# Entry
Amino acid sequence: MARAISLLSSKGGTGKTTTTLNLGMSLADLGINTCIVDLDPMGSIGFSLAKADTEWQGLAEVFLNKIPLEEAILQTKSSTLSILPRGRLDPVNVAAYERYLFRSKSLGALFEELKQKYEYVILDLPSGLGMIPRAALAVSDYALITLQAEPLAMRTLGQSLKVVNHVAEHENELLSLLGILPTMVQVEQEESAGILKTLWGDVDGVFKTYIPRSEIFIKSSHKGVPATFITGPNAVDAQRYSILAREVIQLIWENESPEGESYGEPQRKLF
Amino acid sequence: MVNHNENYSDLGEAIQLAGRLARKRVRRRVAEGASASSGYVSFSWDEDPVEPEMKLPAVVSAPVSQTHYPAPESPAPAYSSPEASPPPPAVTKQTEEARSFDNWDDFLAWSLKLTAAQAGFVVDAQGFVIAQLGQIPSEGLDGLGAELCFSVEQLKRVGVKSTKLQWVEMEYDKELVVAMIEETVESGDVIVSYYCPQSGRQLPKATLLKSLASSKELLM
# Structure
């Protein structure tokens, strides 16, 4: 059985899709069977992978019973990473699509099916706190909030937390806050560094890992590949997501393991 | 200076909510007879969906398998052997010629002599300690590699653009750690650190850097 992690943010442009893609890749690199699901009606994952808007069938076709789920899932060159794209959704129908996902219970059934096949299901949500984020949180195990380290985004943090808290209290008692991920951090910039300091100092549930504003992520978005494909797996910025993946695994372990059991990673050996 | 505790409009509420959510510990149960509903609703863009008799997933994940999150094993095997640890020389050989090496053991053995350092270790770009030699502190180097990687990354941001961070000297009350950074295209940063009895300023830095840079097999 897998965990479904929803990535959300009330503000746009905070790095949800970049994080989804790179976190998914990093989990897969650790040998964990992972599926990325593009729940953004804009099809951000597809756009990030530089695919034409109508190239991939996906969720929309599955919900319309045009194709079976297996046919919609794309197996990447990594044997442990699959992607379930949005599908060829007509932009004119986005409102109806959102309404459908919110009102039907199909998303929950879909997640349960995915969770039979994958250990981690990572959900890229559209920005905002509308119908799709609400529907996704209602059937997710964890919420991960991406927070751009700049003042406006900081002011919206309360909104995202309020929705997560509401869903956890009223709609899905199994939902937990996995963490708040500071993104696009510029430690050399005073306001950005100040926000990071405030988050770490005053707010619970903030990841130790943060994602810096880096040219690598712009390039990876431009080329439509995970950051590690641009720089090789050893570049420091690309490593952020690998470190984040380990922190995610550790947090989930700590959340789900019996009290008192400690977490440990396998020791790397030279021989 | 900016006041880092400046009052963001709803930060107080955010702090409260984050605290509440962070304390919420979900006890996950093993699925008992949980089965996914088959089939999906017939979807029409123009009409309300027909609601199937589906329930929200009542039960979710099983406890984390040890297969995925194994308990810590015994400490990492020591890379160094007692006979490989060289005695610190009395005098640093400032005039030593640069050399190239094909394994970290030899590089560390040679450079420990050159620097009179009591111990040295190598961290790869992932933050792993990939080699160590000499009198390593009894608490070991666990986690230190990753911290060093992050610290070096941060220090790079401090520098003026177009400059290259090559050496970092960390003076603690009881010890001095000097780190040499070599950037590689393929493997990212390689950091070679020494526990030194003397200031980094007295080290034969050019020789060390040149030797490291010319040891291509170490940097692949």
About this structure: The first strand of chain A starts at residue 3 and ends at 8. Chain A touches chain B through 87 residues (CB under 8 Å). The mean pLDDT of chain A is 85.
